[in-house]
Automatic annotation (TrEMBL):
<keyword id="KW-0732">Signal</keyword>
<dbReference type="Pfam" id="PF03886">
    <property type="entry name" value="ABC_trans_aux"/>
</dbReference>
<dbReference type="InterPro" id="IPR005586">
    <property type="entry name" value="ABC_trans_aux"/>
</dbReference>
<feature type="signal peptide">
    <location>
        <begin position="1"/>
        <end position="16"/>
    </location>
</feature>
<feature type="domain" description="ABC-type transport auxiliary lipoprotein component">
    <location>
        <begin position="31"/>
        <end position="182"/>
    </location>
</feature>
<protein>
    <submittedName>
        <fullName>Membrane integrity-associated transporter subunit PqiC</fullName>
    </submittedName>
</protein>
Length: 200
């Protein structure tokens, strides 16, 4: 009995040591901490759930290495599913910069309504190099006979510093740029102007 107790104590001590040395997980978000909401909405829109490539649709960060392989980082994770993080970042920027408010969870108005689909083709994180978002997105109206706008955004934010924090900041900047390209077209349509994809 004493021998069994001794073995149990050794195992318990080993587990305690492992838990003590465990590197804490870090959670990152694309939504800025200082996202402002306008006092009065200049326009309303419905942002559909965002499509994310399956290669990066994980809680853990997936980074591209020098040999083009992908590495999943166990200690660095998204605070929410990546599609929700990106959608939340776009919604926050549309409200803060363009005064356009997402109607998800609200009682949708019965009049004309614009909606946006975002389908991300590439969401790449390359340490010491860049954060990249390639996305197809469209603006549609519920008005019969209205034209749809289909655009593509290729956004690359350079990163020269090592570590994950600069990459997270670069992805936040990329999300802002994506939202601004969408917001510019939503505003043009709302004001009766001709909307057109940005020239690359």
């Amino acid at each position: 009995m004493k021998r069994v107790t001794g073995v149990a104590l050794v195992v318990a001590s080993a587990l305690a040591a492992c838990s003590t040395n465990k590197v804490p997980e870090r959670f990152h978000t694309l939504v800025p901490a200082d996202a402002a909401v306008p006092a009065q909405a200049q326009g309303l829109v419905y942002i559909h759930p965002v499509g994310i490539p399956p290669q990066v649709d994980h809680a853990q960060w997936v980074v591209r290495q020098a040999d083009e392989s992908l590495l999943m980082l166990e200690q660095d994770r998204w605070a929410a599913p990546l599609q929700d993080e990106l959608r939340g970042a776009v919604v926050a920027r549309l409200a803060a910069k363009w005064g356009i408010v997402d109607v998800k969870g609200m009682l949708a108005p019965s009049g004309p309504m614009l909606s946006v689909h975002i389908d991300v083709q590439r969401f790449e994180t390359t340490p010491g190099r860049e954060a990249r978002i390639d996305a197809n997105w469209s603006v549609n109206s519920n008005q019969k006979g209205s034209d749809s706008l289909l655009c593509r955004s290729v956004i690359q934010e350079p990163v020269s510093e090592p570590g994950i924090a600069p990459l997270a900041a670069a992805h936040r900047r990329a999300a802002v740029r994506l939202a601004d390209e969408i917001g510019q077209q939503l505003t043009a349509i709302r004001q009766g102007q001709r909307a057109a994809c940005a020239q690359k």
